[in-house]
Amino acid sequence: MLRFALIALAISVFCKWVLGKWPWDYLNPASTRSQAVFKARKLLAVEAGASHAEIIAAHKKLIALVHPDRGGSNDQVHEANAARDLLLDELPDEGAGLQ
Predict the structure, then answer these.
(1) Amino acid 94: pLDDT
(2) Is the separation of the CB atoms in 42 and 85 below 8 Å?
(3) Among residues 49, 88, 80, which one has the least CA distance to residue 62?
(4) Contacts by 54-62, CB closer than 8 A, 24 or more apart
(5) Among residues 47, 78, 50, which one has the least CA distance to residue 63?
(6) Alpha-carbon distance 17 to 95, whole Å?
(7) Where would I find the H helices in 1-99?
(8) Which of 29, 72, 73, 75 is the most buried (most CB within 10 A)?
(9) Domain 31-92, CATH class in plain words
(10) Residue 55 and residue 46 in contact, taking contact as beta carbons nearer than 8 Å
């Protein structure tokens, strides 16, 4: 029993050292907000560190494809707008440190 406990401890420490998280951290699902941000990035096809201009450009490109005048639907436009708004809300406030 002691051998099992030492092996489990060694594996846990190794996991924390290599991956940066404890093994039991992988049992918790990601938060709803982080899942929504992931889906928004995927929808707009932008990277995690995308700038304001990159998000706006990706949104314009997507809207050009899904606009109802181009065969898309209102739901697709609303989803693209929501993704843009969510990602823009996630950006750090650029003027916060300039006081």
Answers:
(1) 62
(2) no
(3) 80
(4) 55/84, 55/87, 55/88, 55/91, 56/84, 59/83, 59/84
(5) 78
(6) 36
(7) 2-19, 32-44, 52-66, 74-90
(8) 72
(9) mainly alpha
(10) yes
63 or 96: whose pLDDT is higher?
Answer: 63
State residue 97's pLDDT score: 46
pLDDT in tens, 12-53: 898 888 888 888 887 877 678 888 999 999 999 999 989 999
| Pairwise CA distance, residues 84 & 37, whole Å | 10
CA neighbor of 62 nearest in space, from 48, 82, 37, 43: 43
Tokens read off for 55: 């998000």
pLDDT band at 82 (very low <50, low <70, confident <90, very high): very high
